[in-house]
Design a protein that fits this description.
homodimer, 362 residues, alpha/beta, Aspartate Aminotransferase, domain 2, Aspartate Aminotransferase, domain 1, three-stranded antiparallel beta sheet, 9 helices
Chain lengths: 362, 362
């Protein structure tokens, strides 16, 4: 336990606050006098239900989630939501419109095509997803059941800096896997928000879904019960056994976020962290940022040197300095520093310093 | 950590070997010099891939799984398999036959009806699921795509004591959530075996699937990618981020099973544990076993006193003696002691002793 921990810039699963891990470790064999681990508890026991409710309440409080939204803790990751969203929400008109700003948005649209008439409202593909389309570029049909977008694109390092506007009656559906809990959401515009939790919220294994209750109950007839939001709401995420440990860890992390100062603090920290790195890039003659400046992500800072050999040396040298997982996604190469809520300013500063030093060293 | 742990007879999630919890706790902040928790690792990192492969290999070795079966670590529990099984396997003939021996088998059949022509091959409902139908009672169609059964019925405390025989060319599909890893499986007869892991294998959040590769690639056209065994096999359970921590814990538990002596040892232990409790029941004038003797489960011992008030006193007194979760399922009442692999002989003896003492005390 006392060995040195590294600064972990992995894109997800990713860093968890050290004090949260310590707390989980301290009670792993006997949760608060219960005589058992959280991993051994019946999901219907008082002890676990109390963990479950407190986690949900804290999340609702932190994100100011209104009462017409249900919070669900599901499984299967964002990729299962790529199917659940259309299976549950497309029946209103049979149509839905998607913005393709990266790999995951594209996968979501491909999955949705199994269930209805899907149109591409905008795509940044022609520029290799280096930017987010402007509001004026979005072509959203008036009879779309919803407009779908991926709020932050982990692979390309871009992030929507605005909440898209849609024709009257067309709600938003958003994949916020990588920037959830880093800003407030204007809930009035959304039917559905979801997030694989393994970046900003919890270890892998739980998917958080915020579903507006006015949109449930219209699933396609062949929808599996586990993919029907109405059934999940009815069972309060316990139609069957939920991923208890991941929910417990999420609860600890939510309490940490609250203690740190909530969304306001997370938002200030994300600006501070990303500025540290983008400033180095903008002052450098070695590093080039991958994303256009007005589309830059606060969560995933992507950059290259232009020479794959130098990139490789950069990554290897970082590892020696205790800075891990700064390699870019296997589909794009270069470097990527993922700086989610649990990444400290200290860790980010260490990376910024290393970047400067590496460039000087030549 | 040093407080007293209880004997936990929960039906799932359920007890985990104490030494496994201790090991997980010791390396929760820094896994073997990696500088990070397993919960923080990229699922594509060398460290995690090594955990993943070792877990799969140990499971394959323990259960003697042949090479034509793929082992998958999925999410969504057995309930999601209730849909995945027909969505992937029913297309051969459009028909499948189910034995209804309890609540979960019934739910599986109901889910399957969304995807094809489902017939009931046998049902124990008329006797409140207190027995397992004999081979001679199974009516399985010759053109069924598969015959489905639930190997152990946790709620009613019954277990199939034989491997069902089917017409030529009709493979078996079995839900082994509650008796997996307690006996060998005759793989040659199965297309698919699955198990929610939270009873005998791991904490909640991972579902283990054994799929015969000859049966994949024929999913219904509207099957979500996450529900397509072919896609899951292609991605080696990493089409998206898997439930890493639950898989890691499963690895530790698999190594514990191996160290204890493998399936042979688990089988001997299950016989020893269940005999301790059934012997008390059979010698008692207070307790009545719920299941018919030749259908009794080795995993879930269900019994009643016949008087709900006495049942209540029994359960409350057990709790005071450090024996937890011996209440029956909320749908049937009475008592249920779930004695999975991690339950010690010592713990089971403590319950047997308490049963005797409670009866004497009157």
């Amino acid at each position: 336990m006392n060995e040195k921990r590294v600064f972990n810039f992995a894109a997800g699963p990713s860093a968890i606050p050290e004090e949260v891990l310590a707390e989980a470790g301290a009670e792993i064999m006997n949760y608060r006098g219960s005589g058992m681990s959280v991993m051994e508890m019946s999901h219907r026991s008082k002890a676990f239900l109390s963990i479950f409710e407190e986690t949900k309440d804290t999340l609702r409080r932190l994100m100011k989630v209104p009462e017409d939204f249900e919070i669900l803790f599901l499984q299967g990751g964002a990729t299962l939501q790529f199917a659940m969203a259309p299976m549950n929400l497309i029946t209103r008109t049979g149509k839905a419109d998607y913005a393709i700003t990266g790999s995951f948005a594209g996968k979501a649209a491909d999955e949705a095509k199994k269930y209805g008439d899907i149109a591409i409202a905008a795509s940044s593909k022609e520029k290799n997803h280096t930017y987010i389309p402007a509001q004026s570029e979005l072509k959203i049909r008036e009879d779309a059941s919803y407009f779908y977008y991926c709020a932050n694109n982990t692979i390309y390092g871009t992030e929507w800096q605005y909440t898209p506007q849609t024709p009257a009656g067309v709600p938003l559906v958003a994949d916020m896997s990588s920037d959830i809990l880093t800003r407030y959401v204007d809930w009035s515009k959304y039917a559905l928000v979801f997030a694989g939790a393994q970046k900003n919220m919890a270890p892998a294994g739980v998917t958080v879904v915020f579903i507006n209750k006015n949109y449930i109950g219209h699933a396609l007839p062949y929808t599996p019960v586990m993919l029907d939001y109405a059934a999940m709401v009815k069972g309060d995420s316990m139609h069957n056994t939920p991923p208890c440990w991941s929910i417990y860890m999420m609860g600890l992390i939510m309490k940490w976020v609250e203690k740190m100062g909530g969304i306001e603090a997370m938002e200030a920290r994300k600006r501070q962290r990303s500025k540290l790195l983008y400033d180095v890039i903008d002052r450098s003659s070695l590093y080039k940022g991958c994303a256009e400046k007005d589309s830059r992500s606060f969560m995933n800072v992507t950059f290259v040197t232009g020479d794959p050999e130098i990139d490789k040396r950069f990554i290897a040298g970082a590892k020696e300095a205790g800075i891990e997982n700064v390699n870019g996604h296997r589909s794009v190469g270069g470097m990527r520093a993922s700086i989610y809520n649990a990444m400290s300013i200290e860790g980010t500063q260490a990376l910024a310093d290393y970047m400067v030093e590496f460039e000087k060293r030549g």
